[in-house]
Amino acid sequence: MIITVDNPPINAGSTEVRQGLLHAIHEFQDKAQLKAAVIIGAGSTFIAGSDIKEFSLPLAEPHLPTVINAIENCSKPIICALHGVALGGGFELALGCDARIALTGTVFGLPEVTLGIIPGAGGTQRLPRFIGVEKSIELICAGTRIKADEALQLGLINQIVKDDLIGNAIVLATSMFGSKKRIRELTTPKSTAANILAASNKALKLGKNRPQVQKAIEMICNTLILPIDEGLAIEREAFEKLRLSTEAKALRYQFFAERKLFKGLGAHDAEAKPINQIAVIGAGTMGSGIAIACLSAGYGVVILDQNVNALANGVKRVEQFYAVRLKSGKISAEKVSELLSRFSHSVQWGSIVSADLIIEAVFEDITVKHEVFQKIEAYARADALLASNTSYLDIDAIAAKTANPSRVFGLHFFSPAQVMKLIEIVRCKATSAVAVATGLSFAKHLGKTPVISANVFGFIGNRIYTAYRRQCEFMLEEGAYPEQIDKALEDYGFAMGPFAVADMSGLDIAWSMRQSQAINRKPEHRYVTIPDTLCLAGRFGRKSGFGYYQYPEDAGKPIVDPSVNLIIEAASQAKGIERKPFTTVDIVDRIILSMINEIAHLIVDKVVSDPTDCDIALVNGYGFPRWRGGPVFIARELGIDTLKVQLKQLAVVSGPGFLAANTDVIFRD
Predict the structure, then answer these.
(1) How far is the C-alpha of 333 from the C-alpha of 339, rounded, in Å?
(2) Are residues 98 and 69 in the same domain?
């Protein structure tokens, strides 16, 4: 009997799919003439996971464990024929079958922890019985995906075939007439306490010690001491509790927000231009990072810099990146050779004539960028698209200097460009729909997470970050210290605190930006001079050895500098501010509220069309903890009435210059 799962586009394991499977299994059991069954997915994949939308609702019967129990209790063998992906509930279903056969390239995994939960249909109980506790901790706690060849080596599948999946599955099923091979009957391989502890500690570190990682480890270890039915019951109880948690809700929110990003691609007003050859102007850290990202995505890349030494250093960074990956075994020598065969470099502007997309990544100076774009226009093809990687500068002003501003837009990468997921696609006044569509398609091909922004100062991320940093500086004046604020935010889940980030980036960069904006600053608005005082003293952060912290050569971590605290206290005294103590909650609440307020301004000003894009930007580019959802998610959880009360209080403590936004816009879909 062939049982086909047909629920396009990804055969998600919805209620209807579970009902259909259970009905088919019972029918198979009842028909004496049928000796074996094969479960297969229609279309391009098996089951890519459960229907995540259902996780926010009471789960309808039959639950997946009921379906898997029916497979195991069936007296006849049931084989899973796998192709595309078998993830989450799809993989758990496969583990409940008597044998598994897969097409070459099929991907397997239990990614539930990335959504704040654990496998809830036996994944933590059956997988360890097959591959042991340590390997199960590694795969489940990181949500790792593995391909068919590795799955075969681990014994998770019986056979790999290159074609005719259903035909080969029938042959396998025929060979199993009259037999059952249930994973539940296996005994988890023994392991040492030391090995389990090492695997657990590694998983907890990588998983930020989140509750679902802790619980997954506990469930996996239960297979060493508990009968499977007891372990399955405890697993399901833990799954249900985690599923209903705020953290899981936040992670589902992020999942769906990111999925929305590309939904408009197919129905976009304009069709994306094909891109094959990229030219990157500027061989600095950002330029070489962009080159690496493009090479790794399969593009041909030429990097141009008229400074010979800068170009040599940029080329070296690209080559060293792949050399390190080769040495670590993450890439083959053949692949490195193929990648570098698509890479060239030059000091001559003529080298960009064949580029489909030209990305400017030079120094943040509007005059320099104007000169670069004039050169680009002199040599680029008339149909090539032109992008600037600026973080703050006015791209409309750059585009205005070109003959065809419709082909100019922003592609704001985040450093290091080969690592960071976020790209801001900046639409200028004259930017064509084709350019925006191409930017989205390009970002998707790079494996990046794009958000579309209007052309305003700071775009989306840096504008929110500026409001966030300003609030941190207010708290310095009012009684907090850099190390206290940094610790509060790191404990909350941020990758780094704002003052540690400032020191790493260089205090002089933000200082230069503030100086360029000083002409627009209103004298009556509150302005904190502490960062300027540090810069005037030559304290530019890590690169100078001193910033908000000290950076001795022999110290691995920043060291609190008492002299900075004296500077901060003097600034408070000069303004007649009586310093007061801050709690961790005080600090976090003020920062989150300042972000929410700025996001509301962005929506009102039509800088961003979807509020959730702001949360995506902060999570993927600014170290905001994914499991917190983001400021928009938090605002919606607070509720509009509570939020308005808290923002009124924030306006009072922030003083002149703080403008409370119309936060109603955050609650609109």
Answers:
(1) 10
(2) yes
